[in-house]
Amino acid sequence: MDQKVRVTLDGRPVDxxxxxxxxxxxxxxxxxxxxxxxxxxxxxxxxxxxxxLDTSGAPKPTAAKAGDIAYYAPWGNLALFY
Length: 82
Prior knowledge:
Elements: E1 3-9, E2 12-18, H1 22-28, E3 38-40, E4 44-48, E5 69-72, E6 77-81
């Protein structure tokens, strides 16, 4: 079952949903979590995570769209697309 979470960006709360992938479940184990996000290519905000996430059984990558939360395994970072 998908997991509902609350993300606060620039002081504004935003509701989000994590899927049931191993990476999403592993990410949720890091909560509560505070990250300093930086702009990346004016399409996403990124931050390094404290550790790499479990990506076993991860779905094939798809093109991200505004509102997506993604884990970029090669860099080990979180990306929030806008």
